[in-house]
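Handout, page 2. Input:
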Amino acid sequence: MVAKLWLRIVGVMLGGLLIVGAAQADIPTVPNELYEALKLDRTKVTPKELHEAITKRYKDPAQGSGPGTMAQYWEPIPYGMYLDPNTFYKSPTTNKEVASRKECVECHTDESPVWVQAWKRSSHANLDKIRALKPTDITFYKKGKLEEVEKNLRSMGKLAEGEPLKEVSCIDCHVEVGRKGKADHTKDIKMPTADVCGTCHLAEFAERESERDTMIWPDGQWPDGRPSHALDYKANVETTVWAAMPQREVAEGCSMCHTNQNKCDNCHTRHEFSAAESRKPEACATCHSGVDHNNWEAYSMSKHGKIVSMMGDKWNWEAPLKDAYEKGGQSAPTCAGCHMEYEGEYAHNMVRKIRWANYPFVPGIAENIKSDWSEARLDSWVVTCTKCHSERFARSYLELMDKGTLAGLAKYQEAHEVVINLFEEGLLAGQKTNRPNPPAPEKPGFGIFTQLFWSKGNNPASLELKVLEMGENDLAKMHVGLAHVNPGGWTYTEGWGPMNRAYVEIQDENYRIREMVALKERVKNLESNKRTSLLDLDSTAEKISLGGLGGGMLLAGTLALAGWRKRKQSEA
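Output:
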């Protein structure tokens, strides 16, 4: 009896511990939309269950993983395995080592010392230092983050109850988190994808993946979940020109930025993975730059960006974003500070405030800008701006941005109408005689994205390319300049000025083309009233006419020459 009673007591105690210790993954910074999309109860789901559900969707080809629906049209080049490692990466075959976690570090200290030095500076290599942080340290938040990571790993069965995480080393990321034994370099090595990082950093993984669920356009202006980091590779491989281009090395220039979906090291660069580094605007500049998304250029030349360049070395970038102003000494907004914030919370979801999506010419964007959906997002931007400005100032500037963008859009649309009318009438250069079709899977058409990267003969015609660049490049620059408070960027230098020039050139060329059409029509009408053409040199009548014309021209020339000689004699 006593023994049975003791067993019952122990059982109850253990059961209680299991209940009390059961980890939950109700992450405050992850929006409800993700839990709903994955059919999870956020109050009950464990970290293991949440990670498995997110990873299942993340790796599902039907939901954006892999080479896409146009894979038959292109062949990956060797470098492609680093851009989509989940699909294409293969372990190296040159090194036959079977190594332990310690041996990995020892070997790479000689083979790739820069990697190891970066890792040694990282939080991954210094977990005990993080455990020893005091509340007065600005990085004290990392201690709570480490405890969260350990909770996740225990839920996933990768740490025993009470067991601390000792380090995160080569083998954890490139083979398996918590790997105990050795790894075969030729079989086990992999490039970490976002789900691997998400094993430990579950909150960040879930926040990023929630972009799929919060970026839903009311009228389907863009596909669900786009534009976003969560589906940027899908957006890349599903672009017909990318699949069609025979110059794969050029095409992969697009892929090098469109890989946030696949991995986390675009922002958190290897192998230090510094949070402080990723908070700096320069971390965003690699990809968010260039003609059609010149966010870095616009921001860096704005008053905000100039304050960062002048004062940023005095700020403490180790402060988390929520404490950047109060504790970090920050006195101007950064990319991360604005775009990762949503109504006071900071997360890896960058799209909850998107309204224009960088490209105002996309059908339905402008029409949607005063919708309830857009206005709610505008209100969220006001919350962001009022950290530094008054609400009146914020709303007046955001109104300026909207109306300025609409003005640029109107100029583009007028020019677009001129050129598409020429196209529909078959009047563009070479359109009827020298316009080859683009390579599959792209289909022929007017002003298609392909024509920014592919050209042959008169496809595209110069006017067509000009109006295409006007929308894809100049109008985008103008909007981005407006959005980032860069007056030069939206007025003369990058936006309105180039658009105005293109507009004038399009109008001039349209006039010349139509003047020539009218002239040809007049000649045709004149010729229709004659039995023979002025240019029909085979007819007797035209030979006589041409002879007469030639004789007349010769006589006129002779008379002119005689007059010139007489003038010269009198001058002498």
